[in-house]
Write a structure and sequence with these properties.
- The structure is a single chain.
- The chain has 283 residues and is mostly helical.
- 65% of the residues lie in helices and 0% in strands.
- Helix 1 crosses helix 4, helix 4 runs antiparallel to helix 5 and helix 8 packs across helix 9.
- The longest helix is centred in the first third of the chain and has 39 residues.
- It is globular.
- The termini are far apart.
Length: 283
């Protein structure tokens, strides 16, 4: 096998493995947060909790079938391969396994592999891999729960600033301004929308996610990210209203569109801006 294919293939395999773990994160992290919120509320209200919840974290309990509760054996947890060998069904109760799990594993593997063609073996590649995995987890959690956990957005923000100490993607001043501007832009939109309509148009998690994207790619990338996310969000929102006949008052998570736009901007942002400026005739 040519050496040039070793890195992409390795990243593909690594992405498949991490995709399997992300399925666990996407399912369990919101449950862990809810459990923590209940515990904090009980402590605040000085209420004794009569029922103790079973311990839940990313490692325990072991994964099991949601239908028959049968434990999933290690050989049944191999990304993609196990799903195919099992015929997409639980080995005990024969209930179908959601196609979402292998699709997310495959998506994570392919997106991770793509990074090999845009970054050399360097801290930039390592950072881009972590960036990609974080955005995938945030996207799916926001779709499921309309929630962007601080457990992911805040470390992502600080990691972006840390990597840019040595200008891995942009200079540190650009990254710091990007983080501040990213938060304040959506915070300002939120406040204006609330004043005009009396409603909350988005959550604070969106502010933090755009701040994180600004910390990675600098303030110059923010207009492109906002434009792309708004365009895709508007198209998807209109499509959902038509296809599913959802009302305009039904909330649609904005985090997935920010995440998509951020990933596109990391890989192709400079090319998109160069083409745009070329079309506009800007020197």
């Amino acid at each position: 096998m040519p050496l040039s294919w070793l890195v992409p293939l390795s990243l593909l395999l690594l992405g498949l493995l991490v995709g399997s773990f992300l399925n666990v994160v996407i399912y369990r992290l919101p449950l862990m947060m809810e459990s923590r919120w209940r515990r904090d509320c009980c402590e605040l209200l000085e209420i004794d909790r009569e029922k103790q919840e079973a311990p839940l974290n990313l490692a325990t309990p072991n994964s099991h079938c949601p239908h028959c509760k049968a434990a999933i054996k290690p050989w049944q947890n191999i990304p993609l391969l196990s799903y195919l060998l099992l015929g997409g069904k639980c080995s005990v109760c024969a209930q179908p396994i959601s196609t979402r799990y292998p699709l997310l594993e495959l998506t994570t593997g392919l997106m991770t592999m793509i990074l090999a063609w845009y970054f050399q073996l360097s801290p930039a590649l390592l950072g881009a891999v972590i960036f990609t995995w974080s955005l995938i987890a945030l996207t799916m959690i926001d779709i499921d729960h309309q929630l962007l956990p601080d457990d992911i957005t805040l470390p992502l923000l600080w990691l972006g600033l840390l990597l840019n100490l040595n200008a891995t993607y942009v200079s540190l001043p650009e990254a710091v301004i990007g983080a501040m501007a990213g938060y304040l832009i959506l915070w300002g939109v939120y406040q204006v929308f609330r004043l005009l309509t009396g409603k909350e148009g988005m959550g604070y998690g969106d502010f933090k996610l755009l701040a994180a994207l600004g910390a990675w790619m600098g303030w110059q990338a923010l207009p492109l990210i906002i434009l792309l996310s708004s365009l895709v969000g508007a198209i998807m929102g209109i499509a959902m209203m038509i296809i599913k006949r959802r009302g305009r008052d039904i909330p649609i998570p904005f985090g997935p569109y920010l995440a998509m736009a951020g990933w596109i901007a990391l890989l192709w942002g400079d090319d998109i801006m160069a083409r745009y400026l070329g079309v506009m005739g800007t020197p």
